Each structure stands twice: as structure tokens, then as C-alpha cells.
Amino acid sequence: MDGVELERQDQVARGQVAQDRVAELAGWIADGGVVVLSGAGLSTESGIPDYRGPSGIARRVTPMTYQAFTRDPVARRRYWARSHLGWRTIGDARPNAGHRAVARLQELSALDGIITQNVDGLHQAGGAADVVELHGNLARIACLDCGSLSPRAELADRLNAANPGFAATASAINPDGDVELDDRELDGFVVLDCASCGGMLKPDVVYFGETVPPDRVSRSFELVCAARTLLVLGSSLTVMSGRRFVLRAAKEGIRVAIVNQGVTRGEPYASLIVDAPLGMVLPEVVERVEGVAVST
Ligand SMILES: [Zn+2]
Is 135 considered catalytic here? Predict the structure, then answer.
């Protein structure tokens, strides 16, 4: 047997293992009582980069902290300039086959809950409902003073009007949607305040150094603890904000399945792991679940 033949056999064997795992996963999901915990890996196929994923894109811009945002006007101005540009990528992103598959599983009554670490709103755009958005949603803007929430699209229009010329320069510099601009350009950016009270505006997302609102955390623990299966989709579980739910599930004897491309820190707690692109695996799972009645 030559090397090519050995490699071919190896590929067939690996494909078989993956198939067996997908079939087992579909069986678990058809049992019902599934709670989904999704992360950045679910949205990479929609063109939103995962800084911790296997694509290995290093985070070039230091993540904004709540402290810097609220206390440092220069940092805030630069953040808004970058965020305004980044919004184009996020705002234009469309749900992929993975998001649609999750929505379909919900429709089939296989899911008892969806918890996401993503701030892109793509679960809902893909047709899912009742999503717990642990880290908020970039499509909403919150006023830190009066607490009012408003659509991001509205602020984007106001920012475009207040910064004529800025968008044109920036789009020429950033064809890949990644946002890096010279500080001089960022410093010329005009930041806007709340239209009703003049207060400080902030995207309605949880920053580094900020805690997830307690009601979202307790709702998530409730869902996880009542689940038959915790299904992690596209998360390397690097941050405790997501990993704690897997730890709790394992402690409560709830089975954990992970579909993720690349390594995950949830490995010691999961009894079923599928390492493959989500947009490929999840539609296949749906097809199998559709073929059997979901238990309730
Ligand atoms: Zn306000």
C-alpha cells in the first residue's frame, strides 16, 4: 500500500468518526431539552472575525474597557471612530447556515433556550427567538445617563452627518473591514451625545472590565440547570463568562456537547465533541433531527 492510499484510508476513517459523532449529536438533540450556548465561531462564516478562533487573527486593537470608555475622552473618541466603521461589517452581516439551523431546531421544539456570547444579533436574524444575549447587542445604543435605548442605525446616520468625509477616507483604507486608522484621523472624529438628555452614549454591549447584568446570568443558569443537554456552538470557552455554564452543567451531571472548529477549553467536561465547520455540521444535524420525532 502506498502513502497516497494510506492517506486516503485515513481520511475515510476520520470522515466516518465525524459522521458517527454527528449522528450521536443528532440523537441527543432529538431527545429535546437542549440549551445552546453560542460563541464567535458561529458567526465567522458570516464574515465576522473570531479573534480567538483557528483563523489565528491576532487582536490588533486593545479591547476597550468600561473604565477607559467612560473616563478618557480621547480613548472614547477613537473607539467611536473605529466602532462606527466596524459597524458596517457587523451591520451588513447576514446569518449563515449555522444560525438558520439553530432557528430550525428551535422550531422543531428541540431547544429549551439559546444563550449567546455574540453581540451581532445573527441568531434572531436567522429566525431564532427568546435569545439571551449575555454580552448585549451592537445594534442597540444605550444612554449611560437616562438609560434610554435606541437603534444603532439611527446613531450611524447621525454620525455620518456629523463626520462628512470621514467614512470615505476610512473605507478606502480598510477594504477588509478591519478597522485601523491613524490616530490623527481618529482624533478628528465628532462624537455624539444622547439626543434626549445630552448624556454619554455607549453601544449596549458588555465591555472588558464590566460585569454581565445579573438578570441575564441568572436566567442563563436557570436554563442550563434545567437542560438535558448543553450544546456549545463555536466557542473556545476561553473566557469564564461562557465557561462557567459548562462547569455548572458538568457539576449537575448535565451532558455537554461541543461543536467547534479548533481546540476548546471545554474538552474535559464534554462527552461529545465535533471539530468541524458549524455551517457544515449543523444543517446535517437538522436533517437527521427532522427525520425523527423530537421527544418532549
Ligand atoms: Zn440620555
Answer: yes
